[in-house]
Amino acid sequence: MVNVCMFVCLCVQRCVVMDIEGTTTPISFVADVLFPYARANARAHLAATYHTQQTREDVALLRAQINKDLAEGVPGVVPLPPSNATDQDKVIDALVANVQAMIDADRKLTALKQLQGRVWRRGFESGEMKGEVYDDVVQALAEWDTKGIKSYIYSSGSREAQRLIFGNTADHGDLRRYLSAFFDTNVGGKKESRSYYEIWQTLGVDSPSQILFLTDVYQEATAARDAGLEVLISIRPGNAPLPEDHGFQTITSFAQISI
Q1: What domain count does the chain have?
Q2: Which of 66, 101, 126 is the last residue of a domain?
Q3: pLDDT by residue (tens digit) across 20-69?
Q4: How many CA atoms lie within 13 A of 200 on its CB side?
Q5: Measured on CA atoms in the order 45, 48, 53, 56, is the torsion positive or negative?
Q6: Which residues form the signal peptide (predicted)?
Q7: Is residue 153 a contact partner of residue 199, using CB atoms and an 8 Å limit?
Q8: Is the pLDDT score of 1 beyond 50?
Q9: Residues 36 and 107 in one domain
Q10: Rounded mean pLDDT of the chain?
């Protein structure tokens, strides 16, 4: 059984770092809106932008990941035509097959997340998609802002994708005014303690205990705690169950946090 705290009082925190999926935003939005959109529109994006410098860099990053996967025998990987191949359609076909397999496997890869962010940008800019953030998160962000407590996002999704989600919400407009910076897996994997050490160093507070990290993932919570951060686990509809005796305080709403 998970013990949910009715009210959590934290006195020394100067910064709050938040996960997105299952913490600030419903898992269903990611699984039912973002991922399907990227899966369905990756081909169109690659075809329309194939010769741009940005997409060439994205393709190079994907190629490196695909070659690594082939060397490691990852199931479902499709070899790409050589980088000097002249048949653009064949290259795109192979890229799309790999990207869709990565999405289906929910792999947390920088190459995939970067491309997804590009595709989602088209959806947000066209108005096809709007971000979804829990009401209690918006209220907490506003309250912390008035108190001078800085808020940050750390997600496996690219920084571009993070800014799109919070900059284009359906019910609350642009929430980026409350967010001081965005971190993605370029700082390190979310289940690695070193990543949270790097975030602490970047934020510049005297002690990692002055940072509150909010996540729904037990392994992330453990890594952050090992780095010295204060941690609360978010319990939201659809989130994965936690291990028994996980040892963390939990919340069902940001309204339960007092800083």
Answers
A1: 2
A2: 126
A3: 999 999 999 999 999 999 999 999 999 999 999 999 999 999 999 999 99
A4: 22
A5: positive
A6: 1-22
A7: no
A8: no
A9: yes
A10: 93
Neighbours of 134 (CB within 10 A): 18
Phi, psi angles (nearest 5°) of residue 168: -140, 55
Amino acid at position 246, single letter: H
Question: In sequence order, what are the residues at sequence separation of 6 or more whose Cβ sits closer than 8 angstroms to the Cβ of residue 29?
Answer: 131, 132
The CA distance from 251 to 257, in Å, is 8
Q: Both 143 and 39 in a single domain?
A: no
Comparing CA positions, the residue from 131, 214, 212 lying closest to residue 175 is: 131
Q: How confident is the model at residue 9 (pLDDT cuts 50, 70, 90)?
A: low
Residue 101 in tokens = 């397999």
Q: Are residues 115 and 207 in the same domain?
A: no
Boundary-marking domain end, from 126, 154, 185: 126
Alpha helices in 88-158 (DSSP H): 88-104, 110-126, 135-146
Distance of CA 111 to the CA centre of its chain: 13
Report the C-alpha gap between 39 and 30 in whole angstroms: 12
Assess if residue 1 is contained within a domain.
no
